[in-house]
Amino acid sequence: MKKIPILATALACLLSIQAAMATEPPRLVTHDGRHALLVDGKPFLILGAQAHNSSNYPAALKQVWDAAHDLKANTVLMPVAWEQVEPEEGRFDFSFVDALVAEARQQKKHLVLLWFATWKNTSAQYTPAWVKLAPKRFPAMLDQEGKPSYCLSPFGDETLKADKRAFVALMSHLKKIDAAQRTVLMVQVENEVGTYGLVRDYAPAAQAAFEQDVPAAVLARKKAPVPGAGSGNWRAVYGDYADEYFHAWAIARYIGDIAAAGRAVYDLPMFVNNALRNPLEQPPKPWNKNFASGGPSHDVIDIYKAAAPAIDIVGPDIYNFESAQVNANLALFQRSDNALWVPEIGTKPAYGRFLYAMLGRGAIGVSPFGIDYFNYSNHPLGATATDRTLVEPFERVYRMFAPIQRLWAQWAFDGRTQGIAEGDDRQPQQLDFPGWTAKLSYRLGRFGEASWGGEFAKPAPGTEEPNGGVAMAQIAPDEFILIGHRVRVRMEPAAGTSGMMLRAEQGHFDEQGRWQMERVLNGDQVDWGLNLPAEPVMLKVRMGRPR
Length: 547
Ligand code: DGJ
Description:
Blueprint: H1 3-21, E1 27-31, E2 34-39, E3 42-44, E4 46-50, H2 61-71, E5 75-81, H3 82-85, H4 95-107, E6 110-120, H5 129-132, E7 140-142, E8 148-152, H6 157-178, E9 184-191, H7 204-211, H8 216-221, H9 234-238, H10 242-265, E10 270-275, H11 301-307, E11 313-318, H12 323-333, E12 341-345, H13 354-361, E13 365-368, H14 392-401, H15 405-413, E14 417-421, E15 429-433, E16 436-441, E17 469-476, E18 479-485, E19 487-493, E20 500-509, E21 515-521, H16 524-527, E22 530-532, E23 537-544
Bound molecules: (2R,3S,4R,5S)-2-(hydroxymethyl)piperidine-3,4,5-triol.
């Protein structure tokens, strides 16, 4: 009899230990229009590595881990294809997911899974053969003449049902294998959706929906460009934009339905990614075969928010490295209702410096695309290299953020960070913080002023291509952390105030998040501003004002 209380106490103890071990699920939080991805309850910065499209098989993983390790990524983004998990209808095989999750844990990496299903870069190529071979059951979109497009219809009820069932099976499996450890942080639902060459589905069911009134949830978020059109059908409200907006709504609803069903069994943050339209065309013109209609481009984020509330984020896939394009895209996708998250960025070296802009702006993460050591390059979108040189332009920056990723994510969430990359015009820039301004210039040496002429006026060797950048955190009113390379930073008091730099330390943070000073920069090293060299450095700068 006496044993019962002891047993009960031991059991209670065990249960409480288990409860403490069960980690909190990853989730997105928003405060003051800023966002954080909480992992184990604290802001986390995804320093991602997205594998090439065909690296989603157990035998391929070593090539991925090696590259992700060299990159110093903390998270790997990996496709999980419908064709591989449901090769025959109703027979599920999650052996790849099991291998992936187990190896990720050994590698001490987190995962973001990419559900390649009804649409991958708009096409059906990752659907199982039993889907591809049954076009009557899984219909394509039809054009105005009734000719099928290459793209599956978002009005295919059976397609939606089948995709959703497979996705729910995946999420149920994940719950089973990962709810205790939370290796998987987020899930992308489909990949770069939309349709090339056809603005929307003209099949009878789609046409009937097009003639219906625009749903109230869409109307509430997306303003009518047609003067006076408060409500009515898609054409009446959205005029020349109606077809694209309708297609966006149809696809978003389809994806939102899949995401909601998946989250009902295992609730992870979910997102979609976008093959971008030109962000500099403002205001955006109606679709004219110039981008994937119906994809989550910046002009229809509101429609996705209305039709797919289970999708948290619309992320830009950045494959144009003109600085004006990159900056415009970051600004368009960073919104108080949309965390900045860059699930793909090309691997050409020119993209590396933009990590400062992304992480400085407070992105929850970023991921170069095509990070593995297979002998395959997606040049000209990405780098030609398939060896270690592939990761170098990104490793250079990840190396600085990796040890402080939790600190940085918290500072970003608190609104203390900013960042910028050298522009294609190579012109000076500035970052304004409360009380202080950082003036930035490029192509300068580390001694003297260009105005002195002669050798001093010549661009510094190694600066032929734009390559500089800096991310800064204002960790106290007069104190900054700077991370960057190939930029001259001059810290100045905000206009109309006086002040000076008191101390610039070069150093790093230790594993406990404590600053470790390595040396104090003074004399030549500060007389001409803080000249950050070709390899990134971390500085702690203290400013002061005369009393
Ligand atoms: C963007 C897609 O999302 C990726 O899966 C890949 O196809 C790249 N384009 C091109 O390499």
